[in-house]
Amino acid sequence: MGKRILVQRRGRGGIQFRSKDHLKIAPARYPQDGMDNLMRGVIKEILHEPGRHTPISLVELENGQEFYYIPPEGVYEGQEIQIGKGAEVKTGNVLPLSEIPDGSLVCNVEMRPGDGGKIARRSGTYAIVFSHEGDKVILRLPSRKEKLVDARCRATIGVVAGSGRIEKPFMKAGIKYYHERTHPKRWPVVRGVAMNPVSHPHGGGSHKRPGKPTTVARTAPPGQKVGHIAARKTGRAKRRVATKR
Prior knowledge:
Blueprint: H1 6-12, E1 38-47, E2 56-61, E3 66-69, E4 80-84, E5 94-96, E6 105-107, E7 127-133, E8 136-140, E9 146-150, E10 154-157, H2 173-180, E11 215-216, E12 228-229
Parallel strand pairs: 11-12
Antiparallel strand pairs: 1-2, 1-4, 2-3, 5-10, 6-7, 6-10, 7-8, 8-9
């Protein structure tokens, strides 16, 4: 009789898969104020939130409202920022995409007007305002793909802070362990082919290979749902050679 594999235990839930909410400061979202008018605010504090790879800034608006947002590189405590229509195209300011010129680097871009920011929030990432087409804007995402979004969506001018994070190696497994503890997942991640047959569908055998096709149906039960789930195709694409007629 086999044992419950990791995906089954993760689906059941438990303390080891629970997010450590007591370490969280607050969601980083744009305020609803400033959608149709110009608001000014001051960066009161730049904080570190465990589990978030970017800094987080506390901003106080001129009406007394406070919110947290993801700061770009170059901002500092005490800096005055502008939010909304008519704001200057300056690092740290939040503008609708319709007022940002082509070729600008932006981060924390909204996918829908008023959702608070969804795109390019990771440290060192940014999107490029590629072109304007009426009430739509074409964005070039960090993945180099292009996306069409509403011109009313807001974005922060600049590149997300903390870009040098991936340049420093962990060096020790203990440091990596405490780093991963802030996330609701198990670490280290073990390959299925390195396990015993009772622990994983890919386990066992005299060699480190699955020994069978790794594609699995979308409707498979949790004990089988590992590998390439509902894959349209796997492996390398066949190279087609043109022939002369």
